[in-house]
Amino acid sequence: MFDRDDGALDRVIRQLRQPVSIDPALDARVMEEIAADAAPGRLATPRPRFPLRGARWPWLAAAAVLGAILIARPWSAGGDTDALNAFQFVLVAPQASSVSLVGDFNDWDPARSPMQTAQGIWATTVPLPPGRYRYAFLVNGVEWRADPGAPRAGDDEFGTPSSVITVGGKGS
Questions:
Q1: How many CB atoms lie within 10 A of CB 134?
Q2: Domain 22-167, CATH homologous superfamily name and number
Q3: What pTM did the predictor assign?
Q4: Distance (Å, rounded) from C-alpha 115 to C-alpha 137?
Q5: Strand ranges in 1-130 using DSSP code E only, listed in sequence order
Q6: DSSP characters for 6-29?
Q7: Rounded to an integer, what distance in angstroms lies between the CA atom of residue 167 and that of residue 170?
Q8: Residue 101: which of 93, 92, 111 has the closest Cα?
Q9: b/e per residue, 85-105, with b = 16+ CB within 10 A?
Q10: What does the domain layout of the chain look like in residue ranges?
Q11: What does the alpha-carbon distance between residue 75 and residue 158 come to, in Å, rounded to a whole number?
Q12: What is the pLDDT of residues 81-136, one digit of tens each?
């Protein structure tokens, strides 16, 4: 379907599968914070969990992107590669009252892929056959957003932001 350099793809896959080193003291620091928050006699005024106001969004976005990558794993092979692959799409939008996934795969119809939320992190899973798809998130029925964790699609004739996902299949 698309010409590609198998060597480059293999290098990317190997890099993504590399273990991530985590500071061994992280668990101890997290447990200290939890214990400090639960300590009896603690003042009722909450202290900020992040040093800078607004610094929470990059962390939430990074967590959502990492979760989407780990769940979707478009590079994994196994089973029937021509079968539909389930992909989870995630968007961090804590102020949103509704979010829908729209794209080529559902005729840009917001009613076909509504997203569910858990504390402002919106997600839905969509089965996709092999191919290349353009998609976006429709927030509150009016605001179009590209996926911050995916490649941006080129401008369309309407000027709406969108992203691209490529689903591999047999021979790809």
A1: 18
A2: Immunoglobulins (2.60.40.10)
A3: 0.51
A4: 9
A5: 85-92, 99-103, 116-118, 121-128
A6: HHHHHHHHHHHTSPPP--TTHHHH
A7: 10
A8: 111
A9: bebebbbbbeebeebbbbbbb
A10: 22-167
A11: 31
A12: 445 788 899 999 999 999 999 999 999 999 999 999 888 899 999 999 988 899 99
